Every structure is written in C-alpha cells, then in structure tokens.
Write the structure tokens for this entry.
Amino acid sequence: MKTVVENVTCTFCGCLCDDIIVEVEDDRISRVRRACANGRGVFLDYDPTPRKPAVAGREAEWEDAVAEAAKVLVRADSPLIYGLSSSACEAQRKAIALADLLGAIVDTTSSVCHGPTGLAMQAVGEPAASLGEIRNRADLLIFWGCNPAAAHLRHFERYSINAPGTLVPNGRRDRTMIVFDVRPTATAKAADEFFQVLPDGDFEVLAALRALVHGKEPESDSAGGIPLGRLRDLTERMKTCRYGVFFMGMGLTMSRARDINVRELFSLTAELNEFTRFTVMPMRGHGNVAGADQVLTWQSGYPFAVSFARGYPQFGPGEFSAVDVLVREEVDAALILASDPVAHFPHAAAMQLKRIPTIVIDPMMNLTAETARVYFPTCCYGVDAEGVSYRMDNVPIWLRGALPTVRPTDESILDSIIEAVKRC
Amino acid sequence: MSENFILVTGRTVKQASGLHKGKGTDAYRRAVTVVEMNPEDMARMGIAEGQAVRLRTPDGQVEAPVRAGALPPKMVFIPMGPVANELVGPGTDGTGMPSFKGLTVEVEPA
C-alpha cells in the first residue's frame, strides 16, 4: 500500500526545506517530490532496514557494542567527541552530557565550517535576521564566498532571489543580486553583477567598502583585484537600498584571515544600518550545524571546541578543536556522532583518527565508520525518526519521520553509553 | 614541467549526491577525484580533457583526471573530500579551521 507524507523536512543542508512530499511503499520511500538534487538521496538512498552494530569490524549484539564503547571511552585519558551537526538536538544534548561525564573534549563540524564566523560574532556581534524577514523584505542580496547553486539548491526559490515576498512581490524582478567570489561559480552566473576577488583578497575588499561607506577614499586604485570605481558604485547601492543582506560562506572562513574576514563583513553590515536596514546570514552546511552551535552554547557557554577536562567547560579554538588535537596527538579515543571526519579532515588528522580507537554513530557506513572500533547503525532523523533541527537562521524546525522508527536513535545509543560509562 | 596554482576546494552537486550513494561507491569516488582547470592553462601545459595531473603540496600528493572548468587562470578546483584533503595541511592559525581554500599547489601532467 502506498502512503503519501507531506511537509517532511530535508536535513541535508541548513535550508531545512520543510515542504518535501514523500511516497512510502513497504516501509521504504519510493518517491520524493520537491527535494533538490543534493537532498533527494537523503530519502531515496537511505536503507532503513535494521542492522546490528559492529565491533572490530564484526557483527555484535547491541549490549556488547555499548559495553565495548564505554570501555574504550573510560580507558582513554583524553577522549574526543566530534560531529553532532547531522544529528538532532536531542542527541546533541546527550553527546555533550557524555563529554561532561568523561571530562572529554567536544567539537562539532562548525570548527571546519563556520567556526571562524562564531569567533567574529563573539568579537563584533552579528546583525541577524530570519530567512522569512529576508524573503519578504530584501531588495539587495549580496552573496559573498558562497555558492548556493551547488550547496543550497533551493535557497533562491524558497528564501532569496526568486522568492516573491510581501515587499518584493515580483521576486527576482524586484531584487538585485550581487556575487563576490574568487571564481565565476554557477551562483555568479545568476547575478546582476559579479565581483571577482583575488584569492585571499576578501579582507582588502571589505576594508575598502567600510572606508567608502564612511566617505573615506582608500589610497589604492583597486582593492582585492577590484577597481575602486566599481566598489564606490556598489557602496551607493548598498546605502540606498531598502533592505540589504549578505549571505556569506566558506570563501571567507576557509581562506587566509578566516575570522578576521568575517569580522570585517559583520562590522560593515552593522555600519550600513546607519543608512538603511542591512543583515548578514552565514550559509550553514550541515542540516543541524546551527543546532549544534545552539545546544553546545546553552550547555557550556561556547559554540564549539570545548574541553570538559578540568570539570568545567573551557573554550579553545586551535587548542580544543578536533583537527588540532588530532594532529598534536592529544586525544587517545574518539566518539564520532553523525559525521565523517576521515573524509573531510586534512590527511594528517584523518590518519590519526585511524590510529586511535573510535566509536561511530551514524545511519550510513562511511570512511570513518569503516575503521571504527565500534559502529552503531542508527536511524536517520527526519526520515525514520522525529527530532528538532535548527535552520541556518537559527529557527528550530520539528522533523517528522516519514517512516516508522525501527532502528535505534542516536539519542538512545548515547543514553545507553552514558549508563554503561557510569557503571564502569 | 610543473607550475604553481591556487587550489580551491568546495561542494559540488555530484559530490553531494555521490555521498548519499555511499563513500565506497564509484559514483562518490568519481565525484571527488577530479581537477577542474582553466582551458587556457590546460592548453599551455599540453593537458587534454580527462588526462591525469599530479598535484603536490608540502603535505601530500594526488593524481586525478582534469576537466575544463570556469576558473580564473592559475586556479584549480577539487571537490571537497578525501582526495582534496590529501593536499591540505593541518595548520589552523589558532582557529580550528584548516586552509581548505587558497592553497598553493604544484601541478604537472602525470
């Protein structure tokens, strides 16, 4: 029998599109509508068939796998708990409780995504808005170092350029789109004007724009490879728009100067509010990476790179962030929740993860799970489990499961590990 | 003869859809094992579409086939993933964030 489930949320990226329609036949999703090319696989490629966990690559009973995971963590002098961003807030909370219990370091994928954005926010604040406000009001949209045409495929349609809004009823025709990037991406091709920045030139461009906004003339004829005349014209456009927004991405956080680039952008945004309404939106990648920031912040006071080793939370980007502690060989076991750092960390950090005992909790087998001491195949929030995720604008979205929950949740496995650790 | 380029890594639609199929699948491996390059750079270096190139940084070395892409001169792009990360160094400048974009990389025909 076929059933149709409406208003399902896709958890692939920070857009959290919550209008997905799925068709279910024989407890499998047979068809998905409205999902983008990046999100379709969340529903169609996921096999919800229950599977047993693995210990040292061999199938094991759940109790034995939980006991082994607890043993690995308790024996470690300095365990790391990493990932979190593709799980639900309920599980994130348990992962942080486990870190607190163990005196572990906990870090999320934020540290290799918008961690520098968090540092900039702490330094100068973040003039934020909801995607709803932007959709209904923004007439000038500036995409900086991000490529939603590849990474957030329905962003234009649901929240930004093409979406009709209350004060921009004609959608694209009522909006101006600007792109800054080091390469002419697919997003740049959709823009009214493209500014090609020299590699590592973003800070220079941003500093020039800040000067021009305040009526000061930079000494050079260009900044970051862009003629000053073009930046001068853009400055006027920014100051005279009705509602402007910057969407910013990894082009700023992963390039030289990292958080300093973002600090300059956030400062520029705040200063533009002397002339008109202007906001900034980090384009979050993982479906619940914003939730990981939220949960870790309300549990510990800090958004990522937190150590509980001294019995209280300490914040240390560069000191307690996952890549750094792995490369310096300062952790001797790791629990990875809903992430694949072996695929996404620099080689030296990935190799160290293969050398230490790891516990992986993830719906899908991945490169980190392949070499894990213990692997727990769990259910997928938003597909066969309910939970909460935060959209990129920090709006919480309730995930309704389209399929019955048969596999254990990340939360239940973490609960079991916590109880087993307490018994050790 | 090798030349220095700037390496940018990032998301592609094929990389995203490949990871849903599984990181052990050919679809994923093909999606992340490719180097995009400016056609003029390819012509100058005598590199044909689909030909393998070797990329080297102080942290690692990889080989992958080339595809012509919309890039400025002297810039190469590799989709995010284990191939690109062979080239990325572990330094984070005290932020936790490695340099996944803007790396100097040596490129030569394999």
Strands of chain B lie at 3-10, 35-37, 52-57, 60-68, 75-79, 101-109.
